[in-house]
Write a structure and sequence with these properties.
102 residues; 1 helix
C-alpha cells in the first residue's frame, strides 16, 4: 500500500513537472509572439509617423515658399515706391541747388 502511494506521488510529481514544462514553453511562445507583434506594431507606427511628418514638412515648405514670395513682392513694391520718391526728391534738390547758386 505504501509503495502504491509512493508510486502515485512520483507519478503526480512527474505529471506536475511535465505540465510545468509545457506551461513554461507556452509562456515563452506567448512572450515571443507578443514581442514580435509589438515590434511590428512599433515599426508600423514609426512608418506612419514618418509619413505624417513628411506630409507636414511638405505642407509647411509650400507655405513658407508662398510666404517668402509674398514678402518679396511687398518688399519690391516698397523699394519701387521709395526709389520713385527718391528720384522726385533728387530732382527737386538739384533744382533747388541750381536755383540758389545760379
Amino acid at each position: 500500500m505504501a509503495s502504491e502511494a509512493v508510486k502515485k506521488i512520483l507519478e503526480a510529481e512527474a505529471l506536475s513537472d511535465k505540465k510545468n514544462a509545457e506551461a513554461r514553453k507556452q509562456r515563452d511562445d506567448i512572450i515571443s509572439s507578443a514581442s514580435g507583434k509589438s515590434s511590428l506594431a512599433i515599426q508600423k507606427r514609426l512608418s506612419e509617423a514618418h509619413s505624417e511628418l513628411s506630409k507636414l514638412k511638405s505642407d509647411y515648405d509650400k507655405k513658407l515658399e508662398e510666404y517668402k514670395k509674398n514678402a518679396e513682392n511687398v518688399c519690391n513694391k516698397n523699394i519701387d515706391s521709395i526709389r520713385q520718391q527718391a528720384e522726385k526728391n533728387m530732382g527737386k534738390a538739384v533744382d533747388e541747388i541750381i536755383s540758389r547758386y545760379f
